[in-house]
């Protein structure tokens, strides 16, 4: 499993550990389920990568950790990921904010159908995870806990600004 492949000098491994040691805590989404996200414009088609992905030797630590965190999705086979942005926030999104309040963007893991939500409240990003029925699924896996989302989206400030991360690592190796 993923901890076995963690290297101890890696900052994200420390981020990965607490949720695993604390599995009994009950996670709840903070961002609410944004009705109508299905019709938001698609800004990127990406993917969560299969567990056996061989990354290029120069892949950043961030890339490696992002792949490891979600390699459990779809039994390790990866999934298409569709990123959609609230049409009212498209201009802000292109510049990574600043964002007005309300739902900002979703990343949809098409298999098995996870809706990852980023919303802004008082200018700060908050996160949530839902299934296609709008049911909160943030308690089903440690990596779906909003605290876990927040740590990655906040720690890598050179990649994620104001809580949004797109246009980065994944596209450098996503195509076959
Ligand atoms: C290991 C780091 C990491 C974690 C943990 C993480 N994300 Fe992300 N997130 C990313 C990256 C990288 C992208 C950009 C993906 C791309 O460009 O293909 C992204 C993109 C997104 C997007 C699309 C909008 C954007 O540009 O940021 C949303 C929405 C999102 N994440 C929500 C979440 C939620 C909700 C969680 C927790 C359930 C979460 N993320 C956990 C790294 C992470």
UniProtKB/TrEMBL annotation:
Keywords recorded for this protein, A-Z: Signal
Residues spanning the signal sequence: 1-27
Superkingdom field: Bacteria
Protein's name in the database: Cytochrome P460 domain-containing protein
Source organism (scientific name): Veronia pacifica
